[in-house]
Write the structure tokens for this entry.
Amino acid sequence: MAKVLVEALGRRIRTLREARGWSQWELSKQAKLHLVWIQQVEQGKRANHKPVIPSVATLQKICDALNIPVRDLFESEARLPKEDTLFAKALINLMRGRPKSDKQFLIQMAQKLFTKR
């Protein structure tokens, strides 16, 4: 049971990181955590296949870097308002099959366009 939960948590962290167009390196730098630790948390396991269970302090550092509350790690897109869910699905469909570099470029352009100065 714990294995399933830590793997789901790792996938959620990866999804949130990728939504910002960040590499694991960027998240590790922003969270002030070692790159290998970020990789293991996202995979939910260590190189020896034992589960990785991050501490509350580690989760807080990751959330601070992503600028989200800790509770967002445990919520799914199902809790988004309907119009946001429809928008997200439309964007996902539009970008499906595109190279990762295109997706990162789109996120960077949106961040520049919508970031208040």
User: Anything to note?
Assistant: The first helix runs from residue 2 to 19. The helical segments are 2-19, 24-31, 35-43, 56-66, 82-95, 100-114. The two ends are 46 Å apart (CA to CA). The CA atoms of residues 25 and 35 lie 6 Å apart.
